Amino acid sequence: MNAPADVTLELDDIQRGVLSPRPTPYAATYLVFRLDDRAQGRELMRRASSAATSAADSSSPLGDTWVSVAVTYWGLEALGVPHASLDTFAWEFRQGMAARSRALGDEGASSPQHWEAPLGTRDVHVVLAAVAPDPPRLEAAIDRARPAYERLPGVTAIWRQDCYALPTEKEHFGYRDGVSHPAVEGSGIPGSNELEAPLKCGEFVLGYPDELGGVQTPQPSVLGRNGSYAVFRKLHQKVAEFRRYLRDNSTEAQDEELIAAKIMGRWRSGAPLALAPQHDEPALGADPHRRNTFLYEQDDPTGFTTPGGCHIRRANPRDSSVAGEVRLHRMIRRGAVYGPPLPDGALEDDGVDRGLMFAFIGAHLGRQFEFVQSEWMNDGIFFGGGNTRDPIAGSADGKTGFTIPRRPLRRRLAPLPRFVVTRGGEYCFLPSLSALRWLGDLQG
Questions:
Q1: CB of 261 closer than 8 Å to CB of 389
Q2: Contact 419, 235 (CB under 8 A)
Q3: What is the DSSP string of 162-223?
Q4: d(C-alpha 165, C-alpha 338), whole Å
Q5: Nearest-10 crossing angle of helices 38-51, 135-149
Q6: What confidence tier does 1 reach under pLDDT thresholds 50, 70, 90?
Q7: Which residues pair with 33 in a beta bridge?
Q8: 19, 334 in Cβ contact below 8 A?
Q9: Residues 6 or more apart in contact with residue 345 via CB below 8 angstroms
Q10: In this structure, are residues 229 and 428 in contact, taking their beta carbons and an 8 Å threshold?
Q11: For strand 155-164 and strand 27-35, is the pairing parallel, antiparallel, or unpaired?
Q12: Is the peptide bond preceding residue 118 cis, with omega within 30 degrees of 0?
């Protein structure tokens, strides 16, 4: 598009959690705080500016370990940010995720009235996330951050979620996780698809030109610049029901794996159908340089290899000519598993909560996260799929099935139940390190 090139990101002021892909394997923790005292909340921000890791810190003594600090709209309000400044933030952020539930498909069992307390309420003010390659280094990161919030009686820890990597590096449905990551100009971090040109940094970091040449920055600039928006969602996975669906719609074990691949767009190893259309290739799935380097339009425009309605093609249509300007809707996605795995082969739910903590990073909540959720995940019009929804993460109603394009006759699967239930979440702002200090120095 028309954004200028050669923009230099101020990496030493950007939180590392904005740009860095999580390590593999990983351990992670999310901590949520309520600010009951304005002065002590500001002290938390001052301390957090030292605890948070910058994007320039790629040689930490703890390795691929970092701490990120995010603040909700209610948190900024509790800190005393003037309303003239609050009004310059994205309106979706100002409303909060619970208020946007219908647009996001969070209805029925996923509606905010069923969310895990205190998620979705005005008590969620600050979210601290720590990520590390293993539990010992995660605990070390939390220990380093603990002085930021300890001994502040006006700052109350109200929720915690611990996450980890399964030994298989897969999520609970059995698919390899963490496969795709876009390249961001100026970040120095390569993308996972070598065929995708790096995106303008303003798509992910506020205060820089985006793909349209515009610059989005909440005011004052010291608060908005070098920040980003983060979407946190706790998603419960109905693993036994997913397994039963695959079994009931297949003829034998090999067919079951094919259906699983057609629904996702990848074999469970991570190998994409686009590069391994006939059978799984685990070596391909394990190769970060090959497993995500493909496009659709030239070789598979009609979806006979990778169905248009599968999860990965909905979430990122890549070079699709029918999905609009795909680059305007790209996000950085990160998932972290929580809860113990359901034993292999089990087809009945054991009542244990398990799923994913998802984080989506971007500078445009409306045309990135909300657009993808409403137009690509929960609607199929853009690829000719009518009112169909994403088979993995969509807000299925139990009435619409999944169609696998095939010659001479397409294959229709049974109506899809909802396999993923939203347990809560929030829209957050990831301030720059200088913005954290500015928040700490607020007066009045």
A1: no
A2: no
A3: EEE--TTSB-TTS-B-------BTTS----S-TTSPPBPGGGTSTTSB-TTS-B---SSHHH
A4: 8
A5: 140
A6: very low
A7: 126, 157
A8: no
A9: none
A10: yes
A11: antiparallel
A12: yes
What's the one-letter identity of residue 168? Answer: T
Q: Which residue has the tokens 């799935």?
A: 285
Are residues 425 and 231 in contact, defined by beta-carbon separation less than 8 angstroms? yes
DSSP string, 304-336: SSS-TTSHHHHH--TT-SSS--GGGG--EEEEE
In terms of Cα–Cα distance, which of 191, 188, 186, 189 is closest to 207? 186
Pick from 258, 277, 280: nearest CA to 269:
280
Q: What is the pLDDT of residues 374-395, one digit of tens each?
A: 999 999 998 888 889 999 999 9
**Whole-angstrom distance, CA of residue 405 vs CA of residue 104:** 28
Q: What is the pLDDT of residues 424-441, one digit of tens each?
A: 999 999 999 999 999 999
111 burial type by CB count under 10 A (0-12 exposed, 13-18 middle, 19+ buried): middle
Q: Which pLDDT belongs to residue 59?
A: 57
What count of other Cβ atoms lies within 10 Å of the Cβ of residue 189?
15
Task: Name the region of 136 (left: φ>0; alpha: ψ -120 to 50; beta: rest).
Answer: alpha
What are φ and ψ of residue 188, in 5° steps?
80, 5
pTM > 0.90: yes or no: yes
Which residue did the predictor score with more confidence, 258 or 59? 258
Report the amino acid identity of residue 173: F
The token pair at 84 is 């003239």
Tokens of 425: 């979440």
Q: What contacts 444, CB < 8 A, 6 or more positions away?
A: 80
DSSP 394: S
The band of 57, judged by pLDDT with boundaries at 50, 70 and 90, is confident
Report CA 121 to chain centroid distance, whole Å.
20
Two tokens at 130?
């720590």
pLDDT in tens, 136-157: 999 999 999 999 999 999 999 9
pLDDT of residue 3: 42
DSSP state of 118: T
Which residues does 125 contact at the CB level (< 8 Å), separation at least 6?
32, 33, 34, 35, 41, 71, 72, 74, 75, 78
Cβ count near 209 (within 10 Å):
20
**Which pLDDT score, from 0 to 100, does residue 4 have?**
43
238 HSE (CA, 13 A, CB side):
20
Rg (C-alpha) for the chain, rounded Å, is 21
The pLDDT tens digits for 338-351 are: 999 999 999 999 99
Task: Provide the token pair at 327.
Answer: 């680059």
